[in-house]
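Table 4 source record.
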Amino acid sequence: MGPKVFVFNPTCEMAVVNGHGSYRPPARLRQFERELAAITLWLGGERDYVWMEEAVSEEFVAQLKDWGVSAPQFITSPQEAESALSPELHPGDGVPLSTSS
């Protein structure tokens, strides 16, 4: 199995229940998502990726290495994910990460 992309999206159920394709969580929940996005690093390995809105600091990555953690790589755009994983995407096999052509 190839590398995987992990995305922390705790409000996805709210979007489904809302029933609109343009759901945007309240600012407080968007901040929550940004602050905890790196938590998914514990699910992946060195070959995997964690997709975040903001890049993590080099100090954070260095600290993980000092602790002996085989952390995934951190990416901040759909283009990075597509170039790293194409054509294999997880989860949602076959679902593009962006709709722009």
